[in-house]
Specification:
269 residues; alpha/beta; five-stranded mixed β-sheet; four-stranded mixed β-sheet; 25% strand
């Protein structure tokens, strides 16, 4: 409970379909009046929210980076031909773009299941969100965080989004105490880019924004799942206008051929 508001939380370590089911379940509870606030992992929250709902607050953001667990001290140092597990097309695309020799294998299940497969020797390494591991108390498992300039995180990775019914002033005011303006603006920029690119949680796209003073930098990766073709770009804008920065980035990517790559990526998935 936050300031008297009833909360319901969406959390899923499963596949995209599982995440969508969790998110929609929370949204149904909000719309039905069964809860006043929904708490989502921001990277799981689709851009096409019901118009009756809105994001009221984004708390301080955790580390947005992806984490490597297993052999090697950096991506360059990973053993040649290492078997790396992930269920993410975004991670697969960027791993293979950086290291075509890696054997990227599909890895399903929750965090404990994935870590067990690694421990049993089925894989040489796995890649998961650093923030998720920390929230589960599994930070000690992290071998190293993959730099954002090497692997662009998913939009919203490391952030939580607190959702309320549009016009529910009482609930919105109840969660404002946890609002972090920088995190909210970063998420706004990332979601603006993803919306224009018409991306989903199953699309091989990474988008990451970071505020530094009055400036906001935002970068993105769009590629094929096999890493054979990709685009990457970065723009800067005013921190006070995150939507414009996200839109500018997406427009630049689209003018460079992002739509064609995404169409081909969806056919390959």
């Amino acid at each position: 409970m936050i300031g008297g508001a009833d909360l319901v939380e969406a959390s899923s370590d499963g596949e995209p379909g599982d995440k969508s089911r969790f998110v929609r379940g929370v949204e149904r509870a909000l719309l039905a009046g069964e809860a006043e606030v929904g708490v989502h992992s921001a990277k799981d929250l689709p851009g096409d929210m019901p118009e009756e709902l809105e994001i009221a607050a984004v708390p301080p953001r955790e580390d947005p980076a992806d984490a490597w667990i297993g052999a090697g001290s950096s991506l360059d140092d990973a053993p040649e031909g290492a078997r790396v597990g992930t269920a993410s097309l975004r991670r697969r695309a960027q791993l293979l773009a950086a290291r075509p020799d890696l054997r990227v294998e599909e890895l399903h299940g929750n965090v404990d299941t994935r870590l067990r497969k690694l421990a049993e020797g089925e894989l040489d390494a796995i890649v998961l969100a650093a923030a998720g591991l920390r929230r589960l108390g599994r930070e000690a498992e992290i071998g190293f965080s993959i730099p954002v300039d090497v692997m662009v995180p998913a939009a919203g990775q490391g952030a939580l989004a607190l959702q309320v019914r549009a016009g529910d002033t009482a609930s919105a005011e109840a969660v404002v105490a946890v609002l972090d303006f920088d995190a909210a603006r970063e998420l706004t920029a990332e979601r603006a880019a993803v919306a224009l690119l018409e991306a989903s949680c199953a699309t091989p796209i990474g988008v990451h924004a970071r505020i530094d003073g009055e400036r906001l930098g935002i970068e993105a990766f769009v590629g094929l799942p096999d890493g054979s073709e990709w685009l990457r770009d970065r723009v800067e804008g005013e921190a006070s206008d995150p939507v414009s920065a996200g839109v500018l980035l997406a427009e630049r990517l689209l003018s460079a051929g992002a739509r064609e790559i995404l169409t081909r990526a969806e056919a390959m998935a």
